[in-house]
Amino acid sequence: MSVVINKAGVVGAGFMGAEIAYCLATAFDGPMVVRDVSEEVLARALQNISRLVAKAVEKGRLREDKKESFMQRLKFTTEMEDLRGADFVIEAVFEDVKVKQEVFRQLEEVCSPSAVLATNTSGLSITEIASATKDPSRVIGTHFFSPASVMKLVEIVRGLQTSDNTLSIAREMCERMGKETIVVKDVPGFLTTRVASALWLEAMRCLEEGVASAEDIDKGIRLGFNHAMGPLETSDFVGLDLCEHVFAHLTESYGERFRPPVTLGRMARAGWLGRRSGRGFKDYTSGQGR
């Protein structure tokens, strides 16, 4: 039987949060809450979602006469209380266990008692995040890929106490968003982050050792393995500060093979964070990486 969602939400309205909010809003017809602590971030999220809706109309995925009603279903707020009674919520805040745990404590207080509470973490323990709640059976990982409006995969991560019902609802909601899903165990880095990190790290080491230029490293992987993006440009897209954070987390769990190169730390501390700062492994100040 198809799950009924009357109200849903996303907590954390940064780039990924806004993209996920758009995707989730396409999966049901009820009120959709986008919550963040920053009014400025919420304003950008509104702009980003409006752009995605306009693109959907242009591509024929959404009728022009449905555009206004789609946007009217969205509520942008700094108040957690506005999520009261929600049936399905995805958290998309910064990759910090304690921050996420606090979000889940608050969500449990306001959401429906049967609500599924999902986290978009790319590698933190679902079980540890769920430990902050009174009912960890309804907590699950839904790892979207950037940009979420385009990328087809959602990596679903089942915590130690995640129930079969929670897993079933999460899968159905992802499928309603037009996503393909895989289900993986709750281990550090899950599946995709572990494999991708190994590739990104080796590419960074090759650059550091002077094996090839950044352009040729990316070109070699793009054309040699039919990847849409090279590992260095992907790292720039994700953000080099986040990459360093993820690698440090994986190093704690798996040892030296995931230790980030010294160059990565220097770049992050210099403010070279990738695309969003204009400079990373490539220079984006001219509008194109080079």
Structure characterization notes:
This protein is an alpha/beta fold and 290 residues long. It has 2 domains: 178 residues, Rossmann fold, CATH 3.40.50.720; 85 residues, N-(1-d-carboxylethyl)-l-norvaline Dehydrogenase, domain 2 (Orthogonal Bundle). The protein has 11 helices and 8 strands. Strand 6 and strand 7 form a beta hairpin. Helix 1 crosses helix 2. The longest helix is centred in the first third of the chain and has 20 residues. The radius of gyration is 19 Å and the shape is globular.
**Order of the strands making up the biggest sheet:** 3-2-1-4-5-6-7-8
Level-1 CATH class name of the largest domain: Alpha Beta
Shape-level CATH architecture of the largest domain: 3-Layer(aba) Sandwich
Computed structural class? alpha/beta
Number of separate strands: 8
Largest sheet: 8 strands, mixed
Report the end-to-end length measured between terminal Cα atoms: 51 Å
Helix content: 40-55%
